[in-house]
Amino acid sequence: MSFWRSKSAPEPALPGGVPAPEQWAFDPVTGEPIAPPAPPRWRIWARRAKWASLAMFVVFMLLVAWLAVTAPLSKSLKPIAPPSITLLSEQGKPIARKGAIIAAPVEVSKLPEHVPQAFMAIEDRRFYSHWGLDPRGLARAMWTNARAGGMRQGGSTITQQLAKVAFLNSDRTAARKLREVFIAFWLEAWLSKDEIMARYLSNVYFGDNVYGLRAASVHYFNRQPEKLTIAQAAMLAGLLKAPSRLAPTVNLKGAQERAELVTAAMVEAGFITEAEHRALRPARLDIRGISDVKSGTYFADWVLPEARDKAGAVYAEQEVTTTLDDRLQKMAENAAKRGGVGKAQVAIVVMKPNGQVVAMVGGKSYADSTFNRATQAKRQPGSTFKLFVYLAALRSGMTPDSMIDDSPVVFDTWEPKNYGGRYRGNITLKEAFAQSSNVAAVRLAHQVGIAKVIRAARDLGITSPLEDNLSVALGTSGVTLLELTSAYASVANEAYPVKAHGLPAGNSSWYDSLWDRQSGYGSRTLDDLRTLLAASVNGTGRAAALNSKTYGKTGTTQDSRDGLFVGYAGDLVTGVWVGNDDNSPIPGLTGGGIPAKIWRDFMSNALDEPAEAIAVEEDNASDEALDAENAALNMSIEGEIGGMNVGVQIGPEGVRINADPAPAPVPAPRPGDRVTPPPVVPRLEDDGPGAD
Predict the structure, then answer these.
(1) List 76, 89, 123, 685, catalytic entry
(2) What letter would DSSP give residue 664?
(3) Which single residue of 133, 202, 445, 638 could bond 647 by disulfide (Cβ 3.0 to 4.6 Å)?
(4) Active-site residue 123, yes or no?
(5) For this structure, is 383 an active site residue?
(6) 263, 279, 295: which is the final residue of a domain?
(7) Whole-prediction pTM
(8) 196 and 270 share one domain
(9) Over 349-398, what HEC string results?
(10) Per the structure, how many domains does the chain have?
(11) Catalytic residue among 84, 156, 202, 383
């Protein structure tokens, strides 16, 4: 017998002096506390069930949050492949077409009953009765595959297929399959069956770069899906097994055989009768004419990302008008062909002073190489970079008539040299720029500070990395031709920076206008820059001179690896680059040679100016003929006389003679010696008076 402790009873305690809980009973004889009776078992299970339910609820909420992020329902409404976009020139002529053939989504309620039934018969007969997963269909597929000894039939429902094509990749892993099942349940919970079917039919691939039922109906039968016959619907449904292999444009027999399997499955599923099946005739194709518009050009590849952003994620084919000028593009291509570059490459960028790109040549042949040397290749700009050096000098208060010492100088251990070893002593900035003196440019950069030179380049839109040392004054850091041409365009535009663009400028918001605001040069600085650029055309760039007022600068990099001319006249700013993709030297190449002549050839035609006859008149002159011409114009002879290395180079700019002490003979390596090739040290003396 036990009694409950009253308030007046002595305080019982557990061993060790710990007070017993209030709810405990105690033995009246021994005074020992007695534990209360154990709760009923149902209470224990109720408590466990409560905590389990709470845990399941948390997991469920986490799963819902994960699905909301990784599988937003709106994603199944978007095209799964970039839709076709046609780029038009400024004159409205198609210049390139990119992307898949996609049309507007379908609505199941507006389709003939046999259209969705054809897809259900071959893909998922119990689509309208399951909850995203079909155990019977899965078991049937497993049994069929086991009997066939390999994969012959899939068990995925239409809902699972939508989950895969719209939200997942095609990896065959257990994790991906589990996510597919979760997303299928998610779609079934939030969408109706007709909505799931519509999104499925609007997304699946039908071969021939065609996505979605509407696009496939028009492409193969030249009719809308609302008017498809049973035979046509069966053929389209049959393509889903292997769309690329079964596309009727390449495998009509295979497509017809597969369509027969679909119609037989429709009979088996009760969608059509046997009599209807026997009366069917194979669907006849009515292929819509395929456009012969190019799939790509140098300009199209460059402008496409911006064009896609403008078009947006839509199903319908889009047409986007660009800034490309048909007439100027053809002229640029012809000038590149007539340029006499031989096996070397050429790039041309033509823009308006506001940055509107009207022509672009990224190489001799897009078919042979899609690499765009105008926008992707970062090559040393040589003396064309001196624009920024002299701008920094003008900003510091100097003028074209200021004097600069054009005599040999050494900075630490580096001695910049002029082309041909010719120095003029004290000369004006105008003469130094016109003759492209390397020593003068380095002295100016040292005098005003290399940071101000880099700042000038950044202000004019150069974004490529620039070396923080004096050699950058001679153009040793790689930039793209597009960057360089945009920088020169700012002088023609009278404000900087100029942003190159391939789409017509639209209305910008006040925020964009504030952020992208340009800065003016100031009238004195602008006039001085133009004075320098005009002097250069009368100096190293005389081969580019036009009847119109011409402004520009030549550039040649070490060992004649690159030749450039960038300048403007009238309302066009043009940059020309010539060089080899492997960066190997081109004997005799100078910016004032072939690049300047290509520039003049193009600009004289573009501005309707009379020009002297071009040596190579045929657009399709062979590389061999051009190489022979270059070999005749560019000759290099080297030899050793009396302990001196003597070199004679004959090019379009004249004759150059160099003499240097011959290096001491190097003993041949002995067996077992480790031979390390000498480092390649840039020679910065090849760019100067006469070189450009």
Answers:
(1) 123
(2) P
(3) 638
(4) yes
(5) yes
(6) 279
(7) 0.67
(8) yes
(9) EEECCCCEEEEEECCCCCCCCCCCCCCCCCECCHHHHHHHHHHHHHHCCC
(10) 2
(11) 383
